[in-house]
Amino acid sequence: MTDALAILRQNRSDELARLADDHIQHDLQPNDRDKLKAAAASVSLWTTVGSAVGVSLGLLAAIRLRSTRKAFFSAIRAQERPTKVVFEDGRTESIPDLTPLLKPTTLGDFATYFFASAGGLLLGGELGFAGGAASGGRTISSDPESKKRIETAFRRFRSDVLRKQADALDKAGEGSELL
Q1: Torsion sign over Cα 57, 62, 67, 73
Q2: Alpha-carbon distance values, 124 to 45, 58, 91 (Å)
Q3: How many Å is the maximal CA-CA distance in the chain?
Q4: How far, in Å, CA of 11 to CA of 7, rounded?
Q5: Residues 150, 28: contact at Cβ < 8 Å?
Q6: Cα(80)–Cα(66) distance, rounded to whole angstroms?
Q7: Which residue segment(s) compose the domain that 75 sits in?
Q8: Is 91 within a domain?
Q9: Rounded CA Rg of the chain
Q10: Inside any domain, residue 31
Q11: What sections of the protein cross the membrane (predicted)?
């Protein structure tokens, strides 16, 4: 149950990082390591730029939406509205004034800016990540021999991780929870 929160899994991530570093040092040549670092830097750069562009476009959309809402409210407030309805049988009912309910509020403005920028951040970040992954993949696959060594090192890393997980499950005993 201690692995339920990400913050409590720190020693596990340290162990995986150490294992990955061992494979990077022993299974790869220096130019392979440089290609991996360049690919990782490419993904990071594209994700950062995509996130920044997404937030900017989200804020721009929020500004435009807010100005449209204010213009709509001003147009509604300036219009003459009926104050009562007369039915066929002669009965008269008054119509409530809904203008105060349509007025833009600070909370509405905050929600608009927050959700538009958050949406832009998520969309821009994901698109940037996809572009960075494609760019990094091209960097790695430019040399077939290097690509083969990197794939082999990654397969060995995954098999070591799976072995360690299997060993941990075997040591946990029959009475413990798996999930």
Answers
A1: positive
A2: 12, 9, 57
A3: 93
A4: 10
A5: yes
A6: 24
A7: 42-161
A8: yes
A9: 29
A10: no
A11: 43-63
Q: What is the mean pLDDT of residues 154-179?
A: 79
Are the CB atoms for 140 and 32 separated by under 8 Å? no
Domain presence at residue 120: yes
How far lies 161's CA from each of 9, 10, 24, 27, 176, in Å? Answer: 15, 16, 14, 16, 21
Number of domains in the chain: 1
Is 36 in contact with 143 (CB distance < 8 Å)? no
Q: What are phi and psi of 103, to 5 degrees?
A: -65, 130
Please give the DSSP secondary-structure letter assigned to residue 72: H
**Amino acid code (one letter) for 96:** P
End-to-end CA distance of the chain: 9
Q: What residue type is assigned to position 147 of the chain?
A: K
Round to whole Å and give the CA distance between 24 and 31.
11
Q: At 79, is the pLDDT very low, low, confident or very high (cuts 50, 70, 90)?
A: confident
Whose tokens are 């203008």? That residue is 99
Within 10 Å of residue 115's Cβ, how many Cβ atoms? 12
Helix axes of 106-141 and 144-172: crossing angle, nearest 10 degrees: 120
